[in-house]
TrEMBL record:
It comes from the Bacteria. Residues 49-104 form the Zinc finger CHC2-type domain. InterPro entries: DNA_primase_Znf_CHC2 (IPR036977), DnaG_primase (IPR050219), Znf_CHC2 (IPR002694). This is CHC2 zinc finger domain-containing protein. It comes from Aliikangiella maris. Keywords: Metal-binding, Zinc, Zinc-finger.
C-alpha cells in the first residue's frame, strides 16, 4: 500500500506553507553545512566553494556554492541551481513541500549559526532522512 504525502509527513504537509517559513529556511539553513552533511567535499574558491556536480558526469569542479547568497549553480552540463530547498528536492528526489518539511525539521541542526561540528550535523541529517524514508 502506497501512502500519500499527507500520511508520510502528517497534517502539516497539507497546510499552505507560509512565505515567512520558506524565506526563513532559505536564509537560515546553511547550504554549505547541508552539502557537507551529505558527505560532499567542498573546495574553497575565493569567497565561494566548488565541487564536482553530482547531477551529471563531471571531471572538473563545475558546481559553485555562494555562501553569501546561500545559492548553488552548476556551470557545467546540467546548468542546475537554486537554494537549499532546490538542493534537497534534487538530491533527495522529493517535492517542494517535502523538502521544506525536511529542512524545517533540521533547522536547529543545520542553521548557519549552529556550532555543531560537520560530523554531528551529518549524523543527525542522515538519521532524519532515514526516518522519513522508512515511513
Amino acid at each position: 500500500m502506497v501512502l500519500g504525502i499527507d500520511k508520510v509527513l502528517g497534517d502539516s504537509a497539507m497546510a499552505r506553507l507560509s512565505d515567512e517559513l520558506i524565506g526563513r529556511i532559505k536564509h537560515e539553513v546553511s547550504l554549505v553545512r547541508l552539502v557537507e552533511a551529505k558527505g560532499f567535499t567542498l573546495k574553497p574558491h575565493g569567497k565561494d566553494y566548488v565541487m564536482c556536480c553530482p547531477f551529471h558526469q563531471d571531471d572538473t569542479a563545475s558546481l559553485v556554492i555562494t555562501p553569501s547568497k546561500n545559492l548553488w549553480h552548476c556551470m557545467g552540463a546540467c546548468q542546475e541551481g537554486g537554494s537549499v530547498v532546490d538542493w534537497v528536492m534534487k538530491t533527495e528526489g522529493v517535492s517542494f513541500k517535502h523538502a521544506i518539511e525536511l529542512l524545517k525539521n533540521d533547522l536547529p541542526h543545520l542553521a548557519a549559526e549552529s556550532n555543531e561540528s560537520p560530523k554531528v550535523v551529518k549524523k543527525k541529517y542522515k538519521a532524519e532522512i532515514t526516518a522519513h524514508l522508512s515511513l
